[in-house]
Amino acid sequence: MLEKPIKDYKITDEMSINEFVSQMEDAWGFTAGKIALGVKILEKMIKDEDCVKFLSFTANLVATGLRGALKELVKRKLVDVIITTCGALDHDLARCWKNYYRGDFFMDDKMLHEKGINRLGNVLVPNESYGIIIEKKMRLLLESLWSEGIREISTRELCREIGKRISNESSILYWAWKNNIPVYVPGITDGAVGYQIWLFSQDHKIKIDLLKDEQELNDLIFEAKKTGALIIGGGISKHHVIWWNQFKDGLDYAIYLSTAVEWDGSLSGARPREAVSWGKIKGEADRVMIEGDATVILPIMVAALLDRLHK
Question: Among 83, 76, 17, which Cα is nearest to 54's?
Answer without folding.
Answer: 83
